[in-house]
Amino acid sequence: MPATATTTSSSGSIKSLKDLLVGQLNELYAAEVHSESVLAKIASCTCSPRLAEAVRAHLEETKQHLARLDRVFGELGVKPRKSESHGSKGLLEDCETIAGRGRIEPHVRDAAIIASIQRLEHDEIAGYGCARTWASLLGHATAASELLKTLTEERRFDEALTKIAETLNKSALEPAGSSR
User: Fold this and answer.
1) Would residue 179 count as lying in a domain?
2) DSSP letter assigned to residue 101
3) Model-level pTM?
4) Domain containing 144 — which CATH number?
């Protein structure tokens, strides 16, 4: 679960499971908004066309994630507030830093990009999983269903990255220009 979900909500304190849910949703919302610019940058920095395509496809999914979160906030009767957790912010910054490294062998950079994106995805998977469970427990069936859709897409993207890494990492074994 993102770092601050258990310590703050949109109002600053947690008094109920709904407060916890709203705080988690605000963190997910902030992370998705921030992800849009980071994913666009990453897609343009990869050397693997397959990786770039997967990242661009997930960027489009991210827009759907935000639309779903808006619907969830509507069902809960609250407005979204961007309260990015230190964890997701750091993970996104790591993704940007790795994508911007020009002096690294391109296949090695792609392997590092996949690893950093997967850390971010695992954080989102945990966040969406908790939020879906809490929404369901609180009787918000439509919200839980919307969150499950996003959770499924996040898992699917993580699995796609793993499949790409299985072949791409072999290309990173020996940097270009070196011999054994």
Assistant:
1) no
2) -
3) 0.85
4) 1.20.1260.10
